[in-house]
């Protein structure tokens, strides 16, 4: 329930720590007005974490095991958290709750050129501390490039679709976040696809755009209710153009996707953000723009503020890996604001993936 009172004696309610000795989490009403304080969704938290990703060194794509973090509501750079059990990017899925974040599957692109697409390893971290990833189990179907920025309701994490090196699959599987173990086969997507944007949610989540292996990016949007055997169903369509490789930021009532491929060429990427209401089916609506047209951004949120990390900027036919951190307020529309930089570090211990230390295709979540 939203706050029904905005100010007390001209002081914004969010700035009041105590009222008559009581904090906002143990005070129900002021003069009969409902007072709820700031309540984070169970799938969100106060610390943003970016797990893995890829960058470019001397023209060669290289995956990393690096985990980075920052205080989510601060405008600041990330810091080193630890490392995953192996180098990988674009996971099949990621998500968690305020205690634990999971990174499932992905692909490895070592600078040697040896590419492994169908990684089935699952790692987890305890968000409130720092340290390396711990083995969680294995995916039922190892692959990469599912909806890597979703889909959790704080109890279950769904990993959907993805690419196994030869085809895009429509399988869905789930993990129980609080325990460890292997993925369990669930229902199916509407079609085989990869690189879709996926949201977290309370009772349902959205699966937006994606790629089927040929032609233009998907324009369709699907929805799923976290049911362990039901299939995904139709929700609507994206806005101006089809997308894949976009970043995602979620609130309980709205989902925002940013950037991504918009055509068949590697250079056709967008700078547009679009949003979708969660409660009812609707096509994507214009939200604003990211600072540069980009693809493979990492996105996450605490339910109010959204942040997008890294990605690949495309300008005049040249790809540049970014290290920027940009923010939005999900409830309002407008362009992103630059708030900091990602830590410049790579798997070789050098100064960064490129001249500005950026990465793309990582997994981003919040917790603690």
Characterization of the model:
The chain has two domains: 1-39, no CATH class; 47-367, Kelch-type beta propeller (Neuraminidase). β17 (197-198) and β18 (205-208) form a beta hairpin. The chain contains no helices and 32 strands. It has a four-stranded antiparallel beta sheet, with no helix packed on it. Strands 10-11-12-13 form a four-stranded antiparallel beta sheet, with no helix packed on it. Residues 22-31 and 345-355 have low confidence and may be disordered. 52% of the residues are buried. The protein has 368 residues and is mainly beta.
Features:
single chain; about 375 residues; mainly beta; Neuraminidase; 2 domains; four-stranded antiparallel beta sheet; 32 strands; globular
What's this, in brief?
The protein has 368 residues and is mainly β. It is 0% helix and 44% strand.
Secondary-structure content class: mainly beta
How many DSSP E strands? Answer: 32
* Regions with little confidence, pLDDT below 50 for 5+ residues: 22-31, 345-355
- Average pLDDT, to the nearest integer? 85
Q: What is the CA–CA distance across the termini?
A: 22 Å
Radius of gyration: 20 Å
Instruction: State the major sheet.
Output: 4 strands, antiparallel
Count of the separate structural domains:
2
- At the first level of CATH, the class of the largest domain is Mainly Beta
Fill in the CATH topology of the largest domain.
Neuraminidase
Q: Order of strands in the sheet with the most strands?
A: 9-8-7-32
